[in-house]
Structures are given as structure tokens and as C-alpha cells.
Amino acid sequence: MAATGSVRATSALNVKPSQLNLSSKLPLPPPFSVTPLCRRSANSHRRTLVLVRAGLDAKPTVLVAEKLGEAGLTLLKDFANIDCSYNLSPEELCTKISLCDALIVRSGTKVTREVFESSGGRLKVVGRAGVGIDNVDLAAATEHGCLVVNAPTANTVAAAEHGIALLTAMARNIAQADASVKAGKWQRNKYVGVSLVGKTLAVMGFGKVGSEVARRAKGLGMHVIAHDPYAPADRARAIGVDLVGFDEALATADFISLHMPLTAATAKVLNDETFARMKKGVRIVNVARGGVIDEEALVRALDAGVVAQAALDVFTEEPPSKDSKLVQHENVTVTPHLGASTMEAQEGVAIEIAEAVVGALKGELAATAVNAPMVPAEVLTELKPFVVLAEKLGRLAVQLVGGGSGVKTVKVTYASARAPDDLDTRLLRAMITKGLIEPISSVFVNLVNADFTAKQRGLRITEERIILDGSPESPLEFVQVQIANVESKFASAISESGEIKVEGRVKDGIPHLTRVGEFEVDVSLEGSIILCRQVDQPGMIGRVGSILGEENVNVSFMSVGRIAPRKQAVMAIGVDDQPSKETLKMIGDISSIEEFVFLKL
Ligand SMILES: NC(=O)c1ccc[n+]([C@@H]2O[C@H](COP(=O)([O-])OP(=O)(O)OC[C@H]3O[C@@H](n4cnc5c(N)ncnc54)[C@H](O)[C@@H]3O)[C@@H](O)[C@H]2O)c1
Ligand SMILES: O=C(O)[C@H](O)COP(=O)(O)O
Known about the structure:
Helix content: 25-40%
Radius of gyration: 26 Å
CATH architecture of the largest domain: 3-Layer(aba) Sandwich
Shape: globular
EC number: 1.1.1.95
Structural class: alpha/beta
Family: Belongs to the D-isomer specific 2-hydroxyacid dehydrogenase family.
CATH class of the largest domain: Alpha Beta
Mean pLDDT: 85
GO molecular function, one term: NAD binding
Strand order of the largest sheet: 10-9-8-11-12-13-14
Distance between the termini: 33 Å
Number of domains: 4
Protein name: D-3-phosphoglycerate dehydrogenase
CATH topology of the largest domain: Rossmann fold
Bound molecules: nicotinamide-adenine-dinucleotide, 3-phosphoglyceric acid
Number of helices: 19
Largest sheet: 7 strands, parallel
Low-confidence stretches: 1-57
Pathway: Amino-acid biosynthesis; L-serine biosynthesis; L-serine from 3-phospho-D-glycerate: step 1/3
């Protein structure tokens, strides 16, 4: 990062292992550089963080674009010049940003690519005073060398309390009755509510907010169940909550409260088909993200009386249009994304984000960094295909988990001819962790926060080396990921010793999946994968291939691993496109296919 004009390097800070929040189980190599905030020291091999800002004495400038609690502003003022400018238009934000080293926002400001482009390279940190960073263009931030940090924990209780507030207000028609009395009416019969005690509440997503909602609902005398394929059963047991499957949660709940992140898997998870499987008269609360509900389907379900009431804090588009049928529906209670808006939460969030932004401006590595810092180019070049392999193995393994026991213990095995101290596995471990956590959470995992995040989620990752003979040209021969004490959606992925096991290698620079359970396969990890277990017999590849071909799904790779001829075999099929539900059903309906699973990479 070259110093230009008045911007120059002013201080160099060594990164200490303690700042990385990385496990002390592995020997830590020397500190690494983080491109957005740092550069390599010119005169040594030690990698250092370098704070770049205007002049030795000049304070950096922080633009606070949305209201931030006083305690956070005080912390910032000690270190930086603060410009609190709220309600900026996109153009005004782009104009101001070229004069700022850091920007702090909540969910109301869109930090677009144009913002990063307009900053002329001066913007070093974006602080999101809250959890969701869907309003920040992360790819653009990373491309522009700008670190993004968030405040993931300080508003948990506020969001949970808002969920309970909506639940109780909905059950007793508080908002509707209030409006009616203020309109001069006295409609006591119209606003008879329903009781909560003894009713079943299904908490969908048993993470930070979901578990706090569950705890509070228990106090209201509700029978609380939760669906979260990745939550530890003992955490649920500890507060008297049964973890159940998705179907059971839908079918048995009188109330459903949504607390999962918005991911590819949860987008529109409540839709026409899932509403049809709910108890007639179910009531729904959403303080997570609007996109987890198909809003048009919800209007249909409300009109049909399938859903009796809904209470919503979040919407697919915010603010929703004034004539939104959903917002205007008489059985719907709405709030304008107020989940995090308590005095206490906003003070907490303000302190959390101010500390993260100041730390980042000082060149410290933040545990809540959400975009990936770079590792030294020479390490990255060699490890790059293995980094991709590691993340994809993590993603595959976690998607194979079924049942409700939660992922707690993961063993990673690296087979290498390199001497142990000649192979830094931190990046690989971080990428496996990223692959394991990101598909099931709203958390962003990178080299900085991987071990911290795993620990916080009760995920224990152990590493083991197999030292191979032979040429140490390539850093690794294979990587194996095993998840213990879980069931699998695909029973053949369970190894003889009872863990979900996937193994991969890099071939000609391309990561390949080479083992699933005890079955050897060979499929390149590009696109997505269908795994089928079948009885080994002629014609199977052709039958599956032609179903995919007829549905215009391009097959990139196909491989069959079998224990013995004509016995059970596992077929791994790499596909470029996502097959439709109907296509997958056709594959599942082939009589000799005993089980199959579609995995997104
Ligand atoms: N309305 C607000 O103001 C407000 C405030 C805070 C958080 N939120 C939102 O609430 C949600 C939860 O936040 P959190 O801090 O508890 O996150 P978290 O990561 O702690 O918890 C999310 C949980 O969802 C689970 N999950 C993932 N995929 C799932 C699936 N398909 N089905 C069921 N569970 C699944 C994960 O295992 C995890 O336990 C996020 O969407 C967040 O953006 C909203
Ligand atoms: O993601 C979050 O933290 C919540 O949705 C709160 O968003 P807010 O900071 O805009 O209230």
C-alpha cells in the first residue's frame, strides 16, 4: 500500500498471537500481514501491521452516518475526529467519504461499491453497529482493501425481547385494539385474544437470539420446541427445549418464531408449501430477516386463515411499500425493524463497534472482522487450491449432517510429506471452519475470527497430521474432515468408526472430493454435487445422466466408488446447475437408488 500525498505510514505494530484469538494448540508462526490495513515491513522478514493515516499528529476522521450511542461516540472522540452526519443521500455519502478513514453505519445506510470507489482509497474501516451486514458490499470492501467489522452480540437480548413483545402483542391484538380505541371505538368482543400458556412455540434457529426467546417463552408457560439442525442438543436441554426436525416443528407449533440467518437455504423457507403443512390458525413472528418468508405466500395464507396472525419486524424490502398488502393486513402487526432498538442495546452496540473501529484504525486485528484479511502472497500462492478444498470440504461435511444433535466435534487430518513446522495450517483450519459455520449461520468467518467463532459456537476442531514419505513438492496430499457424534442425511457418509467423513485432494490445481464415508470417489469440487447410493449394476450412470440431461442440468464430473462389484456403490455427480426439486425426485425414484443428497458448494 503506497503512501500518497499527505497519507503516509506512521507507525508499525507487531501482531501478537493473543490478538489473533487463535488456538494455542498449534504452534503459531510469525505474525502475518493483513492487506487492508497493513503492509510488509520493508527492512525485515517479520510481517507487521502498519497504520496508514494522515500525518503523525493528525487524528483519523470517522464518519458516523447513523445515530450511535453516546458511549461509543466518546470512545471514538478520544482517538479520532468525528463527523456525525445522518440521513445522507447516496451522493452526499459518496462526496463525504473521500475525507474519511472510517465509516460507521446501522442497517439504514447502503455502503455500495460507489462508496468505496469514491473514497479514493482513504476509507480503511467500515463499522456496522449491529449484526447483519447485508447493506455493505463486502466484495467491494475487500477489493478496495477496506476492513469491515460488526457488533454481533450486543443487541441479542434486545432482539429476543422484541420477539417476545411481538408474540404477546399479537396474541392479545394490542396494536389493533390500541388503534381502535384511539379511533373512538370500544370493541371488546372484536379483540378477544388467545392465551400463550400451554401452547407450543417453535423457535426456528436456536442461536443467540433464538435461545434467548426460548428461555423467555418458557417463563410464559409455553411448551417450547426448536428446530436448528446445527445447534447443540445439550444447550437446548439445559433450558428445557426439545430440538425437533423441520417437519415436526411446522406440524405441531401453535406459534412459530423465526431466528435463523438469511442464507441460500433459509430464503423463503416459509412459503405456500410449508404454510400448507402448518396447523390451521398458526401465528408467526419474524424478527430475523424479511427474506426468510415468501411475503406473497404469507398474504395468501393469512387470507385463507391458515395463518391466523403474523407479527413482523423485518421485510424483504425496507421500508416496505406503503400499499403493501402484508403490512396493511388486519391480522398483521408490524414494527419498523426495531429489534435492536433499545437504549441499552444501542449503547452496547456503540461501544462494541467503536472499540472495533478504533482497534482496526490502530492496526489491530478485530475478532469481529467480516471480510477476509489476506495472508502473505507467497504462502497464499502455494496454498490457494488447498484453501478452496478446505472450505468446500467443510461446506460438504456440514450439509451432510442430519438429525438434531448439533455439530460439536470436528477432526481435520492433513496428510503431507512436509515437516510439521513447514506447513502452516491456520489458513486451512480457518477455511474449514468457514465452510462448517457459514452455511448455517449469520456469522462471517475468516482467518482472524475462525477459531474465536468456532469456540463461541462450542465447536471443537482438532487437527492431526499424517506424515508421508516422498517428495514434499506439494504442501499436502489429502485433507480429511470428520464430524463426530452426529447423524447424517446420507448414511453412506458415515465411516466405519461412526463419523461423517469426507476427504479431498488437489489434482492439477483443482480440488477434488476423493472419499465419502468408506467410499472412494473422484469428483471435482466445482458447481454442486449429487451423491447417490445404489446397488452397483449396469446402466445406473446412464439413467441418472439422462434425467439430468433431459432437465438441461450440465454434468461436469461423475464417479462411482464401490466396495465390491454388484454390491453397494456411491455415485458422485458434479453439476453446474441447480437441479429442480422435480429432477431430484426423479433421481430418488429410481428403484435401485437407496439414498441421495444434493450438496451446494
Ligand atoms: N430485528 C432485528 O433488529 C435483529 C437484531 C439482531 C439479529 N437479527 C437477526 O436475527 C437472526 C439471528 O441472529 P443471531 O444473532 O441469533 O444469529 P446466530 O448465528 O447466533 O443464530 C442463527 C442460528 O440459526 C441456525 N440456522 C442456520 N440455518 C438454519 C436453518 N436452515 N434452520 C434452522 N436454523 C438454522 C444456526 O445454526 C444458528 O444457531 C439473524 O437473521 C439476524 O440478522 C435481527
Ligand atoms: O442486524 C442487526 O443487528 C439488526 O437487524 C439491527 O439492525 P439496526 O442496527 O439497523 O437496528
